Amino acid sequence: MHVDELPTPALIIEADAFEHNLATMAAVHPGSRLRPHVKAHKTTAIARAQAAHGHRGFTCATPREVLGMAAAGLGHDLLLANEVLDLARLRAMGAAQADAQITVAVDSPETIAAAAAAGLANVLIDVDIGLPRCGCLPTEAGRLADLARSKGLTVRGVMGYEGHLMMVRDRVEQRARVDAAVALLLQAHADVGGEIVSSGGTGTHDLHDTTRPRGVNEVQAGSYALMDTQYSSVGFPFRQACFVVGTVIASKASLAVADVGLKALGMDHGNPSIDGATVRFCSDEHITFASDEGANPPVDARVRVIPAHIDPTMALHDTAWLVRGDEVIDRWPIDLRGW
Ligand SMILES: Cc1ncc(COP(=O)(O)O)c(C=O)c1O
Asked: How much is the pTM?
């Protein structure tokens, strides 16, 4: 099939850019030193491609992602890097342990009690290293690990996500702040023990030396595989691999409109982009833009919209079309959506 034959809005992945991104990251953090975050794509076919590059452990954000990965045979080592209290979902993950190794993040007596009650075997202590979200104080981590062990849980180590530092533009400042955040994580790890020290994302992936003994030994990056305009603006060696193709449904001298609206795009990082055009705004089903030079594209032309934030964009689509040039070469269900 030709890309122009896809019903729009159509989420496409350029195979060559995608492969480049996986190979580039695998060269920096090979094998178990990268635990790719599946929340960035929610697609077992993409996780399978990451596994083919040597990464057998994965990070998940929801029980649905964990269960879907386990059911797809990708359950070698799944980390739910998020707190869950829902006993039904925790029990479902407990049952999935027959075929998968599952570890859940805990940061309180309540999340520890829930994991133990659901029959989960493994936990990781989630530590607050500066992002105002989940995670215990570094000084509480050892006590929580003792509590978890007293309930029969295996404590595999610590995680801490420095999400507030992903977009610090000054790389010298970013490195200093990441080092300070990691120092908190290592302080917690000294009290917790266990083999895992997990941290990082695409924006800080190259600031973690995963070869260092007694340092961060795995990076949880996810966006690098598909990328978005926010991360592209930083200048990492990853290419834009994901686009939402739209059809121009109106064209005037001053503007054109395509059928890719905010219901097809994660908008929390601002407007998406169109190469060679200026995006004016998005509404539910429309993107209004104007060419930077020359006439606006005619009605029925196709445009490629570049998402500003990849994770929520993927969550809005049920299919990703893999393309090479103008040819559609595969169809991947975005099968890990939901909670
Ligand atoms: C816990 C956790 N780890 C890692 C990441 C890294 O993601 P990215 O590669 O998109 O920066 C995220 C993203 O939000 C996250 O929530």
From this structure: 0.97
